[in-house]
Automatic annotation (TrEMBL), chain A:
InterPro entries: AcylCo_DH-like_C, AcylCo_DH/oxidase_C
Pfam families registered for this protein in UniProt: Acyl-CoA_dh_1
Keywords on record: FAD, Flavoprotein, Oxidoreductase
Keyword RNA-binding included in the entry's annotation: no
Regions that span the bilayer: none
Name of the protein in its database record: Acyl-CoA dehydrogenase/oxidase C-terminal domain-containing protein
Tree of life domain: Bacteria
Lineage: Bacteria, Bacillati, Actinomycetota, Actinomycetes, Sporichthyales
Gene3D superfamilies per record: Butyryl-CoA Dehydrogenase, subunit A, domain 3 (1.20.140.10)
Native source species: Sporichthya brevicatena
Residues of the Acyl-CoA dehydrogenase/oxidase C-terminal domain: 170-298
From TrEMBL, chain B:
Domain of life: Bacteria
Lineage: Bacteria, Bacillati, Actinomycetota, Actinomycetes, Sporichthyales
Keyword terms of this UniProt record: FAD, Flavoprotein, Oxidoreductase
Name of this chain's protein: Acyl-CoA dehydrogenase family protein
Entry-linked InterPro entries: Acyl-CoA_Oxase/DH_mid-dom (IPR006091), Acyl-CoA_Oxase/DH_mid-dom_sf (IPR046373), AcylCo_DH-like_C (IPR036250), AcylCo_DH/oxidase_C (IPR009075), AcylCoA_DH/ox_N (IPR013786), AcylCoA_DH/ox_N_sf (IPR037069), AcylCoA_DH/oxidase_NM_dom_sf (IPR009100), Mycobact_Acyl-CoA_DH (IPR052161)
């Protein structure tokens, strides 16, 4: 299916209305809307429109699990245990079973099955395990609003079902990174908008702040990385090489990290206050930047891949 | 194999495949022509030969109209040729850059008979051209240039000074910006002219840049006569010509730069086994960012679309990627790069030193940020 610009705008409008009408139960509303079908028919559009919106609106709910699960076939799992930031895989699998250590995007109901990616003998194992018996602990932490959950516990080998190996996790990871990149694009754009509005209207020394070159250049720098992140996100759908998704996430992280730094500085004291929205974007951005690979981990991964193969991949061909 | 207007490959994939075969068949000659030159004269002779070889076989005539020496087709086909040449280990010569930077402006603004006469000379390597833009008092503020052109009969009479004119000492012609309006007429009073470098009254002095090359020159112009028929575009319309040239430089030429940076990163991976993966990854990420930006620009230019201010993104990424890559090389290649005089070490050193200029030439990074702030973010300006 190929969607034209008018249809894309209509879809964007419809999802925006949905997000406005259902701030607390967006996932249910999206299910009724048929977003899951769209994800199958045109994943690029489905992910772009929804996750950008999640970023712009700082939605409490996210459909990250749905996107990651859709990357592999036939999984009936309800959620995914995301690896802890800073580690490639934070859960382990051996003959004694699974030691789960990770994060959920929301509390998972009793009786559900969840997927967990584990360090295992000979590589990565993607396993289906029952959520019962795992300890779920609300973990609001830095982010405000999204109901993150720290999940830990041991699962007996008899309760583990093998779903896939390295290849499956690679696909899940790529799908998750593309979604996070889109959400970061939304966050970055909103942060940049806040700074453009503020510096264009606030007068100091008899001039709007945005007339000062040092201010203009900081905003231009944010905008440059935004442009790069947009193109890298679009390019992540044209190549099947998972490296394209890694590059999209990495570019998006550079965008929001630059935006957090410069926008806060340009907002002055306002950007440090609780009542200004900026800190909510900063908090959400830091958490999403770190999930499924932060800046240095992503770069090391890209570097390892090109160092080991000794060649540069021909991504983004003319 | 020689291409003709009837046999040009129709698609990017066809060019890639057929040019790959040609590269293979001509590899001995190409290796000869791309061997590191001993001096500037030898390097330029080899580059002219390479340009001629690619012109005669038709490959770099792709995407230029027939009346200007081309074979027709889309410009993007030519971008594939450069990319394949570079990934086969033959770095794109300066003349390729010049053809992409100055060629489109000549095609668009020169009177048709002048364009038909001149452009094939550039494309075929029989001539090399330079551009006379910057002046001692007009660098980033190009619109304040003072080099004067006064009408006298059928000629313009030029007096003034130009600086940072790359390779003027080997150039046959110079695309010159001169003030034809009042001294304070800014960008509205500038006219673009095509000056022959053997015209009496041109005094040329090479300036040695920090990498040791005498690339940049000062031009002293003392009553130099240029026929009025050599006017490019409108009288007083030189700014539009300059903007076309800068857009081409930030756009299509950036694509060539990107293919070359990929080749250099590839060299670095082989030569610096201790390069930390995160550094290699960041270098690749930045070069890839430039690739994405310039790919978009190349396609837009190829389709004849207005690219607005977006090449400023390309130009910023070009210098960011280039500076990062060569700083990483210098840091991680070890002491040979600092102390040894073998060609490989000298090459890395040279590329590092030259990369320092990449955020200055062709519109400094600060100018690009100004353009992005004003034209893309539309921030309010000074009252």
């Amino acid at each position: 299916m190929s969607i034209d610009r008018t249809e894309l705008d209509l879809l964007r409008g419809a999802l925006e209305d949905l997000a406005t009408a259902h701030p607390a139960d967006l996932r249910d509303a999206l299910r009724d809307f048929g977003w899951a079908d769209l994800l199958v028919e045109d994943p690029a559009v489905a992910v772009e429109v929804l996750f950008r919106l999640q970023g712009e609106r700082l939605t409490d709910e996210t459909l990250l699990d749905e996107v990651v699960l859709a990357a592999i076939e036939g999984s009936a799992a309800a959620a995914v245990v995301l690896p802890l930031p800073g580690q490639e895989l934070s859960s382990r699998y051996d003959s004694e079973g699974v030691r789960v250590d990770g994060v959920f995007t929301r509390p998972v109901e009793a009786g559900a099955t969840v997927l967990v990616s584990c360090r295992a003998l000979g590589g990565t194992a993607v396993l289906a395990v029952p959520v019962d018996g795992l300890l779920q602990k609300a973990a609001q932490g830095l982010d405000l609003g999204r109901p993150w959950v720290r999940v830990r516990g041991d699962v007996h080998p008899g309760a583990v079902a093998h779903v896939g190996g390295d290849a499956a996790w690679e696909r899940m990871l790529a799908a998750g990174r593309r979604a996070l990149a889109a959400e970061l694009l939304g966050l970055g754009t909103r942060m940049l908008d806040l700074a453009v509005e503020h510096t264009s209207s606030r007068v100091q020394f008899g001039q709007a702040l945005a007339t000062f070159q040092v201010v203009r250049h900081k905003l231009a720098d944010v905008r440059v990385w935004g442009e790069v992140a947009e193109l890298a996100f679009a390019a992540a759908w044209e190549d099947t090489d998972p490296l394209a998704a890694t590059l999209a996430k990495s570019a998006a992280v550079r965008y929001t990290a630059t935006a957090r730094e410069h926008v806060q500085q340009l907002l002055g004291g306002m950007g440090f206050s609780w009542e200004h929205d900026f800190h909510r974007y900063l908090r959400r951005a830091i958490v999403l930047e770190s999930l499924l690979g932060g800046a240095s981990a992503l770069r090391a991964e890209i570097g390892t891949s090109i160092c080991e193969s000794g060649r540069l991949p021909d991504l983004a061909a003319l | 194999m020689t291409l003709t207007a009837d046999t040009i490959p129709g698609t990017i994939a066809d060019v890639r495949e057929q040019f790959g075969v040609w590269l293979h068949e001509n590899s001995d000659r190409l290796r000869e022509l791309c061997a590191p030159g001993q001096d500037v004269a030898a390097t330029f002779t080899a580059q002219r030969e390479l340009q001629k070889l690619l012109f005669d076989s038709g490959w770099i005539r792709l995407g230029w109209p027939a009346e200007l020496g081309g074979l027709g087709g889309e410009m993007v086909l030519r971008a594939v040729v450069v990319e394949e040449l570079c990934s086969a280990g033959y770095p794109p010569p300066f003349s390729f850059g010049t053809q992409e930077v100055l060629g489109p402006a000549i095609a668009r603004y020169a009177p048709p008979e002048l364009a038909a006469d001149l452009l094939p000379r550039l494309l075929s390597g029989s001539e090399y051209w330079c551009q006379g833009f910057s002046e001692p008092g007009a660098g980033s503020d190009l619109a304040s240039l003072r080099c004067k052109a006064v009408e006298d009969g059928d000629d313009w009479v030029i007096s003034g000074e130009k600086v940072w004119t790359s390779w003027a000492q080997v150039a046959d012609r110079c695309l010159l910006l001169a003030r034809t309006g009042e001294p304070n007429s800014g960008s509205r009073g500038i006219t673009a002219l095509m000056m022959d470098m053997d015209t009496p009254g041109i005094d040329l002095r090479p300036l040695v840049s920090m990498n040791g090359d005498a690339e940049f020159c000062s031009l002293y112009l003392d009553d130099v006569r240029i026929p009025r028929s050599r006017t490019l575009g409108e009288i007083g319309g030189g700014w539009a010509v300059a903007m076309t040239i800068l857009a081409s430089e930030r756009g299509a030429a950036a694509w060539q730069r990107q293919t070359w940076m990929r080749a250099r990163l590839h060299d670095l991976l082989k030569q610096a086994p201790d390069l930390p993966p995160a550094v290699a990854g960041e270098a690749f990420e930045l070069i890839h960012a430039l690739r994405l930006l310039s790919r978009r620009t190349v396609h837009a230019l190829s389709r004849g679309e207005d690219i607005g201010a977006t090449p400023s993104f390309d130009k910023l990424l070009m210098s960011t990627a280039e500076k990062f890559l060569f700083a990483a090389a210098l840091e991680h290649l070890g002491s040979a790069t600092l102390f040894d005089d073998d060609p490989t070490s000298a090459g890395w050193r040279n590329d590092y030193l030259y990369s320092r200029a990449s955020s200055i030439y062709g519109g400094a990074a600060e100018i690009q940020r100004d353009i992005i702030a004003g034209r893309i973010l539309r921030l309010p300006g000074r009252r």
